[in-house]
Amino acid sequence: MSHSKRLAGLQARMTVSYMWVTAVSVVMLEGLTAVLLSVAISSTAWPRMPKGLLDSVRPGGPVPFTSEALYPWFEAVFMMGLILMLAPLIGGLFGTLTTRGIVRRLRDLVMATTKIEEGDYMHRVCVRRPDEIGQLEAHFNRMAAQLAESLVQRQELAAHNARLTERSRISRELHDAISQDLFSLRMLTDGLQAALPPQSALQPQITTLESITTRMTREMRALQLEMRPLLIDHLDLTIGLEALAVAYRTRLNITVTTAITPISINPQRATALLRIAQEALTNAVRHAAATTITVGLRHMGARIELRIADDGHGFDVGDTISQHGLGLRIMHERVSELQGTLDVQTSPTDGTSVLVCLPLEEL
Hints:
This protein is an alpha+beta fold. Among the domains are: about 5-50 and about 65-120, no CATH class; about 230-363, Histidine kinase-like ATPase, C-terminal domain (Heat Shock Protein 90), CATH 3.30.565.10. It has eight helices and five strands; from the N terminus they run H-H-H-H-H-H-E-H-E-E-H-E-E. The protein has helices at about 5-50, 50-55, 70-115, 130-195, 205-225, 235-250, 265-285, 325-335; strands spanning about 255-260, 290-300, 305-310, 340-345, 350-360. It has a five-stranded mixed beta sheet with strand order 1-2-3-5-4, with helices on one face. The longest helix has about 60 residues, at about 130-195. The two termini are about 60 Å apart. Residues about 45-65 have low confidence and may be disordered.
């Protein structure tokens, strides 16, 4: 049975209920009225009726209608009969008009649940009145909003997991293919350099090849670390910075020192700062060939400072085409969202220093 037929049956049952309640109420009222009229007539009209009229009333005989004393009683009986016939019809009409609005609102709720079932999670119902059905409509809208939000979060989580899975796959392929080939090339280069005499004309080329292989190996390891990042989204800022330092120190065999002052800030902003630090570390290793990196965090007056400095060969700050420029734009966007400032100082001899300043009132 469809929802429309079920609601139509509900409306019919409610209308019949109105008719029965009205009819029973009228019968009870008319019965009480009849008793009162009988008592009134018996105590007033009958004693004053002529004796001959009383003698003419016989069982089974005609009832005389000539006495004016009986007119009120017959009129009352006629009116009660008329009311008894009309009252259920009036009650049914009132029930139909009353239940039509209720059934319409229930039908809207049923249609809304069908829309949700079909995947339209943005569908809402109109709260017409602050009654019981209105409360149900309001609860339905809240439930639909929570369901839509939960679905969005689920989709974002699925997309995030898909990205992590794809990054892990690429990282494994890089390790299994390119990293192994680079390691073999490095071994062959070392063997060739040892086999040739020191005065050989090929020694400078072999040294250059060894340097290129070493640099490519480091960049490959940094790329693998970037493709399989640490799970720092829910870490404390201090713990997250220390974890980043340990990861780059152990996996890339570079020197990473820390000077971190424990500071408690909003978790969302802490995650953003950790991402900025990770981007700066990646740029220093992959694009500046840094071997020593310093990570500092401190509280300075009305602001907080995050500094990442390296001893690399620097880069052109105005270059927005290279990967280094792309990393700077990403850091600028994150800092702007935090209402802070980003200062980058770089030179071929002094390396690069990235300073992030955030006002305390924005934490």
